[in-house]
Design a protein that fits this description.
The chain is α+β, with helices and mostly antiparallel strands. It is built from 15 helices and ten strands. Helices cover 45% and strands 17% of the residues. The longest helix is centred in the last third of the chain and has 18 residues.
């Protein structure tokens, strides 16, 4: 795109999940790499240099991917790639920056139980993915266990050529992009320690009622189970299935629980069908303590009815039109499309997957969605998490099944 002399770039590396006793290592590494600068360019000098050029450079790290990304004038792309290479080859990781980041992370952990909605969301994922990276959460113990040596070892493991992807968009040609990457990364070798792929998820926790005490005036209710992966032929129908059931104010859950009964301040559902492992279906609602049992029962009733009967033709037609229209705008900006393409390349998926997905949505029928609801929704096999004061509820939690109390300690 040569309309304006600007470019965005993403440099992506597969990253390990990190050890279970040092959760937070990836996040700390990514932050300390960018904010600690390199041996050659200390953090303050790096910030000044980037700001002087009206550019930006950042690092983000998660459970499976570390990215160095930036935005600049076209003429400065070479400089930003030079900086990125220097950060990779000569990271400083000063102790004061590591300790600053540690203190911020510990404060976030200390405050994590202040938000009861966050407790429910956090705990249900821990139950859906027990002993798996997707279900792990930082704790004071794991964050305090991270040393500078751990960060350096993690850094040396992440930055290698195997699986690395470079993406760039803007005022640049393919030839220019190849020339710049060859100049700044042509001799890059990186580490030689193979990164273990994300492990398969084991069994989820057993279905039942899980309870976390919180002295609040509302109850926060979550219910869910594991689902399917992206390559499942039902994944597109499942997204429309969930859009009708629990996405937005026009959804069935919102109409029944919030509008018709006035029970919930917020309610809905989410469905994920990711690439590497099984995703999740989760429904949620926040309501008055004195209505929590009724809300939980109605949520189960709505999901059960939908699993059995699916949507009406009108609901399907409206949802499909709205979803397809919104999908077109998902990649409105060139930066959004670039991130998507880098992600697809990193995952080993076809680069035209967005177009293929759109065609799949456009070709769906109501029968596809009904079949997905029947096969993929399991209201009698859900993990249910309730956050609040059970002694103030309108009916005993035990009436829904065995109650298991959760330890929400952040130690």
């Amino acid at each position: 795109d040569h309309e304006v002399p600007l470019v965005d770039f993403y440099l992506s590396f597969p990253s390990p999940s990190g050890p279970a006793d040092k959760v937070g290592l990836a996040s700390m590494t990514g932050w300390a790499l960018r904010n600690g600068g390199s041996v050659n360019i200390p953090a303050d000098s790096l910030n000044y240099l980037v700001e002087f050029k009206a550019a930006s450079i950042g690092v983000s790290a998660g459970q499976e991917q570390l990215q160095v990304y930036g935005f600049c004038l076209k003429d400065d792309l070479g400089l930003l790639l030079e900086i990125a290479r220097d950060l990779i080859d000569n990271p400083a990781y000063p102790e004061d920056k590591i300790e600053f980041r540690r203190s911020n992370m510990l404060e976030g952990i200390r405050r994590s139980n202040d938000n009861p909605r966050g407790i429910g969301s956090r705990e249900i994922y821990k139950l859906l993915y027990p002993d798996h990276p997707w279900g792990r959460e930082n704790s004071t113990t794991t964050v305090n266990a991270i040393s500078r040596d751990d960060i350096m070892n993690y850094h040396n493991q992440v930055f290698q050529t195997e699986g690395a992807v470079f993406g760039v968009v803007g005022d640049i040609t393919l030839e220019e992009a190849k020339e710049l990457t060859s100049k700044h990364f042509g001799d890059f070798k990186g580490g030689d320690v193979a990164i273990e792929p994300l492990p398969k998820a084991g069994e989820a926790a057993k279905p039942g009622i899980y309870y976390a005490y919180k002295d609040v005036t509302q109850a926060y209710v979550y219910a869910g189970h594991r689902t399917i992966t992206y390559d499942d032929p039902r994944s597109h129908a499942a997204q429309i299935m969930n859009y009708i059931l629990g996405s937005g104010m026009q959804s069935i859950l919102s109409k029944r629980i919030r509008v018709d009964e006035g029970l919930a301040y917020g309610t809905g559902s989410r469905f994920s069908a990711p690439v590497p492992i099984e995703g999740t279906f989760t429904a949620f609602a926040s309501t008055r303590l004195a209505e929590a049992g009724r809300t939980l029962g109605l949520m189960n009733e709505v999901i059960s009815d939908y699993a059995e009967n699916g949507p009406t033709q009108e609901q399907f037609d409206q949802a499909l039109k709205a979803y397809v229209n919104s999908y077109v705008w998902k990649y409105e900006s060139s930066e959004d499309m670039l991130y998507r393409l880098v992600y697809l390349k990193w995952r080993g998926l076809p680069l035209d997957s967005p177009q293929r997905d759109l065609e799949a949505y456009q070709n769906l029928t109501i029968e596809d969605v009904k079949q997905a609801a029947k096969e993929l929704l399991h209201p009698d096999n859900m993990i249910k998490v309730v956050v609040g004061d059970k002694d103030q509820l309108d009916q005993p939690l035990e009436s829904f099944g065995e109650v298991i109390e959760l330890d929400i300690s952040t130690e």
